[in-house]
Amino acid sequence: MTVDLTTRRPRTRDTAVALSGVAKTFGTGPGAVTALNGIDLQVGAGEFVCVLGASGCGKSTLLNLLAGLDAPTAGEVTVGSARPSFMFQEAALMPWLTALRNVELPLKLAGHGRSARQERAEELLSLVRLEGMGGKRPHELSGGMRQRVSLARALAAATGLGEDQGTGGLLLMDEPFAALDAITRDVLQGELLRVWRATGTTIVFVTHDVREAVRLAERVVLLSSRPGTVVREWTMPADGHDAEAQAELHDDITGRLRQVITSHAA
What we know:
Blueprint: E1 15-26, E2 33-44, E3 48-52, H1 59-67, E4 74-79, E5 83-87, H2 99-109, H3 114-127, H4 143-159, E6 169-174, H5 182-199, E7 202-207, H6 210-216, E8 219-223, E9 230-235, H7 243-265
Parallel strand pairs: 3-7, 3-8, 5-6, 6-7
Antiparallel strand pairs: 1-2, 1-4, 8-9
Helix pairs in contact: 2-3, 2-4, 3-4, 4-5, 6-7
């Protein structure tokens, strides 16, 4: 499958994710910690949004709320997808299962038959360029290959057997490439863009890396330091190969991120 990586797709009108006045506080009394406060954010179906911020600003907490792993203290979280899925820094694969069986796992838990789920798992492994590797166990794969398997598994959870592909999948990614070396990270970023365009999955991607955010996202959302709130958003240029525009955006976003960090330190 060949996918054009030079053109970013227009955002759709349908809303996949909406947060309105969302706050999250952990604990009570003097020891309470407010991680998020007054978050207003919408993500369109099929959109790729990067949430950027310094460490401890509540980025992972935001993903947990979207995944339904935690509930907001205030405000409302609406997720249109019935199948949100998570991808973490670590591949978190089942070591006793092959790559194919790892990808099949969410389909098995969803009650799909063996033949259908195996066919879908093989399709997704092919999509992440792991054809013929389905019989390998995680310890037989490199770190980058394990993350590819993890991506295929997350897509299986988000898109099911693919019958509704591009209409309801939501992929939540918590710095999935942070633990990889620079070359592998660069390759997988390109692969993620290719897979996103091939599947139409909605992606909310958390990172603290401005370069990564500018390269990947259609829209970059900057959170303030704790308590996290949206301080600014940027829409990326339609031409993904406009190096000058990307450089200007990188500098602008970096400057605002430094302001956020400096104001917090002060």
